[in-house]
Each structure stands twice: as structure tokens, then as C-alpha cells.
Write a structure and sequence with these properties.
Cytochrome Bc1 Complex, Chain A, domain 1; disordered N terminus; 6-stranded mixed sheet; 18 helices; alpha+beta; 504 residues; 16% strand; 11 strands; 5-stranded mixed sheet
């Protein structure tokens, strides 16, 4: 379920005063905004509902305002690990005997703690004791497994007709999604609220091993993964965007079941969660059921926000990964806060002009004309979107060319952007594409639910989605030129590249 953060995974979606062909959504921009209803329970949990009665289905999106950015040294990767464990069931789901299982899990944790203490002695460790503890640990783990009903949580949803059951962890958040027939709404209310009311991190050690293997496959054994990790660490000196969602291997290996329980209690509380529901439902009924099921979850104060602010970069930073692999290039420029910061949409425009599609400046120069690259992209909002982040350009050099070859031409195109205003046609193309993406998203209940929830948290108010659609028309060629001059400068950037080395 680990999702690499190459592109901002949270694409917002809403509609303006246009007609969506083949859909009942012919209402105006203002009418759709009025149809979205919200309710905050007494424990602080917010529900956002949009009724769409064109088909007897409904999409659910549970947004927990916790991601890798909330992790501290020693527990990096815990948000993603917890996401895995959230599918392992509860006190009533996924177990044949919760009381007996609890006793075995406590004994398993105790044995693991002893085993870990002995291992930390290093060369002074008692090998006989280590072997004995390891054998006891494995025996007790098998005993704990005997109480587990494998995939019970997932299977219950599937049997109820669920589709697209999934979850994903990003730098900014952890999100749980599924779609169900509309006559299964109360079933979802019961099972999803139980997930957070009676969370049990069973099969912890097995799942931790799964996550470690994910890290090996996605980062440790892949030069591109290594570059990604090194690039983030160089670009962010202070802010927690500097570590990957998967976490550091030593941290994953050291996280305990109690660490997960403590982390869950801190961040998986009603005041730190938002649910969006879109489909064939009635908002008033949803709010009534939410009060019954989710209102049971104890309230608590929302965790304090991240305090650390990335300081201004004093000069260009460079990292290299030497490998027998295809060369790659990352260029990251620090950029300010997200929308409604007025410059956010301007960076979207810059990304569109420079590196979005075959008509973009970088594609035409690097791929079509000079053929120094096989691919080149520019995107806004990396590796997360909640805090000031990076505007990134990514290039894959073609055979016989290096990352430096690409960098020279990219610099030339950026300098041209600073001195030559883009044409009215290019600006209008960006605005059309921007709105088209929003309209495409309207076709999916699931995407609508995702974006209502995501933007309620990220922007502080889902209503800003409508304002964003209007504000894109305010972007000018002069704005693009101004921001290029201000932010796309050598001092403000980090460069990461794979340097190809020849084998024996």
C-alpha cells in the first residue's frame, strides 16, 4: 500500500457552471456547492456529504490527518505500518477469541522485549539465551496466529459488495477508501467506526516484516529509489518532509507494538479525522447514523501542528547516487505555502508550460529537438502538499547522454521563461486543462469524496475548491515570469542525479 510521492497524489475536483455530458450534473457551480452538507459530531469528527442519486452506489473516504510528516526520529515509517495494521481487525473482527488472544499478544511482546535487550548487547550477547528466546518467540507467535481470522475485515467488506477497498499513506495523511451499494451504508458505519473504536494491531511482527520487505524492494535495491530518498534528505534540512513515507530501515526494525498503539491514540482521534461520503444517500440519515456509530469514539484534543519550518536555502545542494543504472535527474526548487496562497496556482501554470505533455517547452527541447532525454516532467507540490514544498523537474536522459546534459538545456528553458512572457494561447491552454481535470473528476464519486475530505483538511475549508476554480482565471503571464525569477534560481534548488558507473 506504500505509494511513492512523485506527483501530488491528492488531485482536487469540483465543477464550475458547465454541463457534464451524459450526467445528471447539469446544475450550476453555485448549486452544487449548496448541495454539499456537513456535520461535526460532539466528539469533533466531521462528516461531509454530497447526495448523488443517479446510481445506487456510494463512496466513502476516511481521512486521518496523519502522515510521515508527523513522525519523529526513531519511528519513521510508523504511519504506513499503522495503515497496514488497520486492516487486521478489531476486538470483534479478525479473531476467534479476543480475550485469549490478548493474553498471548502481551506475552509475545514481553518475549520480544527480552530478545531485543539481549541483541543490543552485541558481541557480549549470550548466544544460548538468544536462541532460546528466539524459539520461544516463534512458538508464541504461532500461538497468537491460531486466533486470527485472516483478512476478516477485508472479506466482510467484499461480501457486502464493496469495490476499490484500499488505503494509502502519504507524507501528509492516511486515507481509507471503499465503495458499496447504497443499502450497505449502515454496515459501513458499523465496521468503519469499529476499526477506530476497537483497533487491535494483531500480527504486528509479521506485518512489520512485510513493510521492511517493501522498503528493500522499493528503495534499497533500486537506484531510482535510493536517489529519491537522498534527494529528499538533501532538499529538506529541517522539515520532516526529509524522510520517505516508508521510513528508515533501522526505525522500522525497532518500532514496537506499543509504539503503534501510542501513535494511534494520539492521531486517530475524532478531532483529527474527516469523512466524506458521496453517492446515493440522504445527508440527514448519514448524520444520524454517524452520531450513533462514530459518536461512540472518545474525543480528544487535535494534535499540535508541526512546528518546524524549513529555513531558506543558502546555496545549491547536490546529491549523487552511483549505480550501474540508467541516469536520472531531479531538480527541486523550494516554493511557498499551498492554496489559498495566491502563488500556488501560478506554480501549476509554470509546471504546465514547462513540463506537462508533448507541447511543453521541456519536452519539445529535450525529447523532440535535441533528443537528450526520453522523458521530462515538471510538477507542483512535492513530496507533500500540506506544507511549503518543492516545484520539481524530473528527466530521464537518453542513451549516450547524462543528467548534466539535460540540466544545461533545462536551465536554458527556465531562463527563457524569465525573459519571455508566455503567449496568450499557452496561458489559455493551461486554464482549459486545469478546468478539464476538475470536470473529469466529477465522473467519479470516489474522487469527489477524496477531494472533499482532503481539501477540508489541507485548505481548512472544502468551500475553497469552488474559489480555486475561479481563481485560476486570475493567473497572468506576468505572474509566471515574476515567480520564475524569484524561485527558479540556482541558490534555491537541490539537484539529485544517478551517475552511471560501468561494471567489471
Amino acid at each position: 500500500m506504500f505509494v511513492r510521492q512523485i506527483r501530488r497524489c491528492l488531485l482536487l475536483v469540483i465543477i464550475a457552471s458547465l454541463v457534464v455530458v451524459g450526467s445528471v450534473w447539469s446544475q450550476t457551480f453555485q448549486n452544487i456547492e449548496k448541495q454539499v452538507k456537513e456535520c461535526t459530531l460532539s466528539n469533533g469528527m466531521k462528516f461531509i456529504v454530497l447526495e448523488r442519486h443517479d446510481a445506487p452506489v456510494v463512496s466513502f473516504h476516511t481521512y486521518a490527518d496523519v502522515g510521515s510528516v508527523n513522525e519523529t526520529y526513531g519511528i519513521t515509517g510508523i504511519s504506513h505500518l499503522l495503515e497496514h495494521l488497520a486492516f487486521k481487525g478489531t476486538k470483534t473482527i479478525g479473531t476467534t477469541d479476543y480475550e485469549a488472544e490478548t493474553a498471548v499478544l502481551a506475552r509475545l511482546d514481553s518475549i520480544y522485549a527480552e530478545l531485543n535487550r539481549e541483541k543490543r548487547k552485541g558481541a557480549a550477547a549470550d548466544s544460548t539465551r538468544l536462541a532460546s528466546l528466539q524459539a520461544e518467540f516463534e512458538k508464541t507467535q504461532q500461538q497468537a496466529s491460531s486466533y486470527v481470522i485472516n483478512n476478516d475485515f477485508f472479506d466482510l467488506l467484499i461480501k457486502a459488495g464493496a469495490k476499490d477497498v484500499n488505503a494509502f499513506t502519504s507524507n501528509d495523511a492516511t486515507q481509507y477508501v471503499c465503495s458499496l451499494p447504497s443499502n450497505k451504508v449502515e454496515f459501513w458505519m458499523a465496521i468503519e467506526s469499529d476499526r477506530f473504536l476497537n483497533f487491535v494491531p494483531r500480527e504486528f511482527y509479521k506485518e512489520r516484516n512485510v513493510v521492511m520487505e517493501e522498503r528493500r524492494l522499493s528503495l534499497d535495491t533500486r537506484p531510482a529509489g535510493k536517489l529519491y530518498e537522498e534527494f529528499l534528505a538533501a532538499a529538506f534540512k529541517a522539515h520532516p518532509y526529509h524522510h520517505t513515507v516508508i521510513g528508515h530501515m533501522s526505525d522500522i526494525q525497532s518500532i514496537t507494538r506499543q509504539d503503534v498503539i501510542n501513535y494511534f491514540k494520539k492521531y486517530y482521534i475524532p478531532s483529527n479525522m474527516v469523512v466524506a461520503i458521496v453517492g446515493d444517500v440522504k445527508a440527514d440519515e448519514i448524520f444520524k447514523m454517524a452520531k450513533t456509530y462514530f459518536g461512540r469514539i472518545p474525543s480528544g484534543p487535535k494534535p499540535e501542528p508541526i512546528r518546524t519550518v524549513e529555513p531558506p536555502q543558502p546555496g545549491e545542494r547536490r546529491v549523487e547516487v552511483e549505480a550501474k543504472a540508467q541516469p536520472l535527474l531531479y531538480i527541486g526548487y523550494h516554493r511557498p505555502a499551498i492554496y489559498p496562497h495566491p502563488e500556488d496556482l501560478v506554480f501549476d501554470a509554470i509546471a504546465n508550460v514547462l513540463g506537462s505533455g508533448r507541447t511543453s517547452w521541456l519536452y519539445k527541447r529535450l525529447v523532440k529537438e535535441t533528443k537528450v532525454a526520453t522523458a521530462v516532467y515538471a510538477f507542483n507540490g512535492f513530496p507533500g502538499y500540506k506544507f511549503p514544498n518543492l516545484f520539481v523537474i524530473f528527466a530521464v536522459p537518453s542513451k549516450g547522454h547524462t543528467a548534466e546534459d539535460c540540466l544545461v538545456l533545462i536551465d536554458e528553458e527556465i531562463e527563457k521563461l524569465k525573459t519571455k512572457p508566455i503567449s496568450p494561447e499557452e496561458l489559455n491552454k493551461f486554464k482549459r486543462n486545469f478546468k478539464k481535470d476538475w470536470l473529469e473528476g466529477m465522473k467519479s464519486n470516489a474522487r469527489m469524496a477524496q477531494n472533499l475530505a482532503s481539501n477540508e483538511v489541507l485548505m481548512g475549508d472544502w468551500h475553497l475548491l469552488f474559489q480555486m476554480f475561479k481563481d485560476v482565471d486570475k493567473v497572468t503571464a506576468a505572474d509566471i515570469q515574476r515567480l520564475a525569477k524569484q524561485y527558479l534560481v540556482r541558490k534555491n534548488r537541490t539537484i539529485g542525479q544517478i551517475v552511471t558507473v560501468k561494471g567489471d
